[in-house]
Amino acid sequence: MHEIIVGLDERSYPIITKNGVLDEAGEIIKQRFGMRRLIIITDENVYKGQGERLKLSLEKAGFSPVFYILPPGEATKSYPYFEEVVEAILAAKIERKDLIIAFGGGVVGDLTGFAASVVRRGVNFIQIPTSLLSQVDSSVGGKTGINSPKGKNLVGAFHQPILVLIDPTVLKTLSDRHVKAGYAEVVKYALINDMTFFEWLEINADKLSSYGEECAHIITTSCQHKADIVAEDEKEHGARALLNLGHTFGHALEALTGYSETLIHGEAIAIGMIQALNFSKKLGYCTGQDIIRVQSHFEKMGLPTHISSIEGYEFTAEEILEAMYQDKKVSDGALTFILTKGIGGAFIQKNVDPKLVLEFLNEDMKLSQTT
Ligand SMILES: NC(=O)c1ccc[n+]([C@@H]2O[C@H](COP(=O)([O-])OP(=O)(O)OC[C@H]3O[C@@H](n4cnc5c(N)ncnc54)[C@H](O)[C@@H]3O)[C@@H](O)[C@H]2O)c1
Ligand SMILES: [Zn+2]
Prior knowledge:
The chain is an alpha/beta fold and 371 residues long. It has 2 domains: 2-173, Rossmann fold (3-Layer(aba) Sandwich), CATH 3.40.50.1970; 176-370, Dehydroquinate synthase-like - alpha domain (Dehydroquinate synthase-like, alpha domain), CATH 1.20.1090. The protein is 47% helix and 17% strand. It contains 13 helices and 11 strands. Helix 6 (176-193) packs antiparallel against helix 7 and helix 12 packs across helix 13. The structure holds nicotinamide-adenine-dinucleotide (NAD) and zinc ion.
C-alpha cells in the first residue's frame, strides 16, 4: 500500500494506491469515517466492469450502497446530468455528514465532485478513479465542474475530496485507447520538472499494463507531483498553471473536433505537448534533441504527436488561435502558455504575442505536409 497526503491543512486527504484496494473500500471507509449513508455515482461502463466489486465490498462492511449510473462520455458532464445527479443525491437523503462516492473516470469525478460541492452547500466526497487519466490527474486536486455549450469546464468549483482510493487493477477493463491517453498526463509531470522520471519512463513505461510495481510507480509518482503542486497553489494563482503544459494547444484541438471520440483529451494534449515543445524551440528556449526524444517516446507508447494524425483534420491556424481565445486560461485577452527549456524545464509565459502563435501554427501545419 502506498499513501500520499495532499497537504491542505484541515482539508488534507490521503491518496491510497494498492492493487485490490477496491475490494477493501468498504472497510477503509468504515474505519475512517464510520457508518454513513452512501451514494455512488458511476457510469455504465465502469459499473459493468467494476461495479460488483465495489458493491460487494461496501455491503460486506455493512453499508447499504445506492448506485446512480450515468451514460458514459463527455456529454454527461453537462447541465442536464448535473441536475439529475443533484436530485439523485437528494432522493437518497444524503445529508452533510454522509458520503458521496465518485466511481469512474474524469467525467464522473468532475460531475460528482461539482454536485457534492453544491448539494446542501457541500457534502464530503470520495474519489475512486477508474481510468488512468483520473488516477494520475483528475481525482486529485479538487477541480470539479461541467462543460457549458460555450466551452469545456467553464462551470465548476474547487471542492477537495476527503479520500482518494486508487486500484490499478481496475484498468484491466479500461480500453487500450484510454490507457494510452491517460499516459499522456503521466509524461506531462516528467516534462514539467522531473527528468529522472522521464528517463525511468523511457525504460519502464511499456510495463504499465502489467499492473505490477511499474504501474504503481507510474501512478504514485504522478500523484505525488500533482499533490505537491496542489499543496503549493490550490486555486491556480501560480505554479498550478504548469499542469496546463500542452493544454492551451490541446484544448483548442479538442474544441475544433467537438470534444468527440475523434480526439480524446490525452491524445489532444500529447499533440499539444509536442506543439508546446516546438513553440518553445521557436522562441529559443528548447533544443530539437529533447523534442525528438519526447516524440519518439510518444510514438513508442502509441500516442499521436502531430495534428495531421487527427481524422478529418482540416482546420486552419487562425481557427486554432480563435479556439485558444475561448479557453479559460485567457486573461484580459492575453494568452498564457506553458513553455519549456527542455524535458523537466517547464515555465509559465504570460502575454504571449498572438502573432507569434499564429506564425508558429502555420509553420507547424506545414510540417504536417512534409512528414
Ligand atoms: N478535475 C481535473 O483536475 C481534471 C484533470 C484532467 C482531466 N479532467 C477531465 O477528465 C475528463 C476525462 O477523463 P477520462 O479520460 O477518465 O474520461 P471518462 O471519464 O470519459 O472515461 C473514459 C472512458 O472509459 C470508461 N471507463 C473508465 N474507467 C473504466 C474502467 N475501469 N473499466 C471500463 N471502462 C472504464 C468510461 O466509461 C469512459 O467511456 C475530461 O472531462 C477532463 O476535462 C479533469
Ligand atoms: Zn489534461
